[in-house]
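Continuing the series of single-chain predictions for the mutant panel. This is the parent chain; the variants come on the following pages.
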Amino acid sequence: MILFSQLEGYDMKSEMGDDMCKLKDLVIDTTNWKVTNLVVSGLLKKKKEELLIRPSDIKIDWGEEKVILSPAARTEAITQDKSSLKNMYLSDLLKKHAYSSDKEKFGKVYDVEIATELKDWEVWKLLIKVGFKKRRLRIKPDKISKLDEDVSIKMTKKEVEALSHPTLG
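Parent structure:
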């Protein structure tokens, strides 16, 4: 598992160790919560041009803490300049407020945990800041009931408060 905030801005290297590009964003299919593309910039020294590559075209070297771009990687031009509800840029998901099933706003999505190995680039959990003390709540995508301008989950505000403010006993 890795947080998007840990991957964002990573320099992607060739197998020989040369800098190739930077990871800017991810595109997620919100019907199955799989990462369909990585948005990169700087490939072929075109600093401002952003391109898409498939997650299968990279590997993460956890020991060396680097992302390696396959020599066989294929790039694709970005054809949609905005997120859609089906193919959402992760940076757009991170701007959404979170609402309970009883329509109470309780927080904001601030990061996403991604399974890169066992689940092969699948969103594992959304991380939401809750309340004044900025407590964190981790929600699996199957707990999301609606995704549009904001995120609605299948829990009441009381259930959210119980999870984000556990009692010790």
